[in-house]
Amino acid sequence: MARDAVIGACPHDCPDTCSILTTVEDGKAIAVRGNPDHPFTQGRLCVKVNNYQDRVYSDRRVLYPLKRVGPKGSGQFARITWDEAMGEIAERWKGIIASDGGQAILPYSYLGTQGVINGLNVGDPLFNKLGATVSERTFCDSASCTAYMMTIGHTPGVDPESFVHSKYIILWACNTLSTNSHHWPFIERARKNGAKLVVIDPVRTRTARLADWHIPIRPGTDGALALALINIIVKEGLVDRDYVEKHTIGFDALAERAADYTPEFASAETGIPVEDILTLAREYATTPPAVVRIGVAVERHAGGGQTVRAIACLPALIGAWTHVGGGLLQLPIWAFPVNWPGLMRPDLQPETMRVLNTWRLGPALTGEEPMDPPIRSLFVYNANPMAMVSQQQKLEAGLAREDLFTVVSEHFITDTAKYADIVLPATTQLEQKDIMFSWGHLYLSYNNQAIEPLGEAVSNTELFRRLAKALGIDDPFFFRSDDEMIEASMDWSSPVLEGVTLEDLKAKGYIRLNMPAADDWAPHRDGNFPTPSGKCEFSSTMAAGGNFVVPLFRQGYGGSQSGETVDPLPHYIAPNESKRTSPDLAASYPLSLISPKSHAFLNSNYGNLPAQLAQAGEEQAVILHPDDAADRGIVSGGAIRVFNQRGAFEAFATLSPDVLRGVVVAPAGYWQRSNRRGATVHALTPPAFADLGRGPTFSDMLVEVASA
Amino acid sequence: MAYVVTDLCCGCRYTECVTVCPVECFHVDETMTYIDPDNCIDCGGCVPVCPVGAIQASYLLAPDKVSWIEINRARSAETPTIISKLPPLPTAEERRKALSA
C-alpha cells in the first residue's frame, strides 16, 4: 500500500489559509489534518475543513459536464462530453458577440477557491479579451479597502503574530473564534502577558464570551463610536503630538470635525453608555501597544467606508504605530508580491468596458436595471449567487429567463447551478495545484495536488484553457501550463521573496515573507505609509478623485468608476434603516437583522454537506432576544417568519440574551433547499451600497418576525 | 456541537490534547480529561494528537458513546481547567497497548 502525506493549503476565502496534510493511500485521500509545523495555523483546521475528503468524495459531486434537459431551474440534466459542452458554449458566445457584442456576456465569480491561479482572477484575461461586461466583485472588504487606501494606503498593517506584544486588543466586528480562529493563540498569549481584550459586536459571540470586555453595539453605528473615540482622545489631550506632527496630515481639520461627535451623541446612536465610551477611549489611548483588528462586518452598512476611515485614523492619533504590536490589522494581503496585472491582463481590455456590480445581478438579469445590450449569457464559477446575493427573488426570475444562456462550473448542483444550461465539473483543492496568498498572515503557501481529478472534473485554469481553445484564440498566454502560471504569479525578484525558490515552497508548503520578525516589527514607526503623501491621511487626498472600487475587484479595470463625491474627512453616516433614521419603516419592521457567517459554513460552502449541517443545525435558525420573542408570542424552537418590505423567509427561533434587544441574527450560508419556504435571508437584504467601494449593506436592515 | 472525550481516556490521560487546544477548553480529574462544550470551537486539533484516539466529534459518536456528551458537559463544569500537559497515569502505557491490540 502506497501511503503519502501531501502538503497543501486550504482553498477557502478565510484569513487563515491553513497548511493541510492530506493522507493519500493508493491514490485516494483518506484524511486531512492541520500541518503542525506551520507557525500560524499550528496543526489545526476547523469545523468546515476537518473532513474535506468528504467534500471531495461526496456522492453529490458533479463529475461530468451536464446539459439541461428540463425546464429552467428544474435541475434536470443529462451527461454530455467536454467537447460538446465547449462546442455549444463557443457557438452561443460567437453568436452573441456577433449580434450584441462581448458586453452581452457576463462573468460572475469570487473566491469559492482562493488560489492565486484558480481563484479571483483566473477568468479575467479571457473575459477582458472578449470585451465582456466587467464583473465588479465587491463582496468582501471593498468599502473597507477603499477607506483603508484613502487613509493609510495598501499596507499590510500590524503583523498578526505581533499581537503577542499588544497590551490592549480591540476586535471590532470580528468573531475571531469562528472566522479567524488561528489568530486566537496569539491574542491569548498577549492576554497571558497582561493584555486586555475588548470585543465590539452586537452579539455576544463565542469570541465576545471569552473577552475581558464585550461592548454590545447597535448594528451599523460603529462609525459614531469611532468618531467619539477621536473626539475624546483630542479633547482629553491623549494625542501623540510628535507622531501626529511627523507622520500625519489633516489633524486640525480632523479635530474640528470630531468636535461634533461627543460621547453623548455616540451613546444615543450606538446604545453604549457614555461612561463606557469614555473608558474605552482612555484605556485604548493609554495602554500601549494598542491594536485594533477589524472584521469584514464593520463595512456592511450605509456608512461602512467612513467607519473604516475613522477607525484607521485612531492608531496614528495615539502613536500606536510606534510600538511592536500597535496599530491596525485589516488585510495583510497587500504584503504579497502578486503579479496582479499578469493575472488580470487589463491590457487586453477594449478602451471602454461596461461594469456591472455583482450585487445587482438580479435586476440586471430581469431588465429592471437597464442594460443595453441585455445580458444574454452568464458564466458562473467560484460562486453561488442564489444563496448569497440580495434581491434573491429577482435573481431567481432572472435566472429563469429562457433566453439567458447560463453556464456554471461547480462541485455541486447548487441553488445557482440548478438554473444552468450547462454545468461543468470543477476540481476541489486536493485535485489541483495552486499557490496561495493569505489575508490573515504573512505566509505564502503552496498547494500540492494530492490526488488525480475525479471523473472529468477540471481545475479553473484548465477550464479557461479549454474555453480559449474552443473560441479559436491563438495567443499562447491562454495556454500556459499550471506550472508556468504559478511561476508567473509572483514577482520573485521582490525583496519579500529574496532567497525563496518555488522548489523550497513546494517541499515545505509555506514560507514566511521576508518581512522583519514579528517580535521586532513596527511597520509605521517612522511613518512611511503607502499613501500619496507618505503619511497617515486624516484628511484624504485620494477623496478628491471620488468614490472608487479598487481595480483588483474589477478585473483590473480602472474606468467607469461610480465617482460619487467623497468628503475628505471622516464623518458619520447613520444606517439607512433604523428607528432613528427611518421611523416609518421601523413602525412596521422594528427589528435590525444581521447575517454573520455561520460557524460551520464558509459563505454557502458546506451548506449542503451532512457533517457541517449536523454541526450547524440542519435548518436555518434565527436568534432573538427572549424579550423580543415574548413580545411576539414566539417560543424557543418555534417556526417563525422573518419579513420586510423586500421579502420573507422562514426559520426556527432560538432565544438568547446574547443578542441585543431589537436585534435578530440569521447566520448566513444555508441553501434555499434547507429553508422551509425556499428563500434565504438574502430575500430580505437591501440592495443599497455602502458609502465607499460599493460594499454591501447587509447589517443595515429592518425586519419583523412573527410565528409562522 | 463540540468534540467529546470518551472513556478511552480513562486510565491513560496522556493530556496531549491540552497542548493543541487554542481555547483552553479541557478540564481534568484523576481519571481523564473533559471538553467544555460551550468553549470548544470544533477545530478538531486534539483528535489526531490523542495517543489512544479517545476524542471524537459529537456528531460522529457511536450510539454506545453518546452518553459521553453529557458527561463532558457535566464534568467540565465541576473540574478545573488544565492548560499544560501532565504526566500520563501510571497505567497509561499498558492501557494504550491493550487498546491498540
UniProtKB/TrEMBL annotation, chain A:
Coiled-coil features, chain-numbered ranges: none
Q: Write down the superkingdom of origin.
A: Bacteria
The prosthetic group or cofactor this protein requires is:
Mo-bis(molybdopterin guanine dinucleotide)
Q: What are the residue boundaries of the 4Fe-4S Mo/W bis-MGD-type domain, all occurrences included? A: 3-60
Care to name a GO molecular-function term for this sequence?
oxidoreductase activity
Enumerate the CDD domains for this protein: MopB_3
- Pfam families referenced in this protein's UniProt entry, alphabetically: Molybdop_Fe4S4, Molybdopterin, Molydop_binding
Arranged from A to Z, the UniProt key words for this protein are: Iron, Iron-sulfur, Metal-binding, Molybdenum, Oxidoreductase
Regarding protein family, the annotation reads: Belongs to the prokaryotic molybdopterin-containing oxidoreductase family.
Q: What is this protein called?
A: Anaerobic selenocysteine-containing dehydrogenase
Native source organism of the sequence: Methylopila capsulata
UniProtKB/TrEMBL annotation, chain B:
Task: Name the source's superkingdom.
Answer: Bacteria
Checking InterPro entries in the record gives: 4Fe4S_Fe-S-bd, 4Fe4S_Fe_S_CS, 7Fe_ferredoxin, RnfB_subfamily
Pfam families, from UniProt?
Answer: Fer4 (PF00037)
GO MF term set: 4 iron, 4 sulfur cluster binding; electron transfer activity; metal ion binding
Q: Which UniProt keywords apply?
A: 4Fe-4S, Electron transport, Iron, Iron-sulfur, Metal-binding, Transport
Give yes or no: UniProt keyword Iron-sulfur. yes
Name all 4Fe-4S ferredoxin-type domain ranges.
Answer: 1-30, 31-60
Task: State the needed cofactors, names only.
Answer: [3Fe-4S] cluster; [4Fe-4S] cluster
Purpose: Ferredoxins are iron-sulfur proteins that transfer electrons in a wide variety of metabolic reactions.
Provide the protein name. Ferredoxin
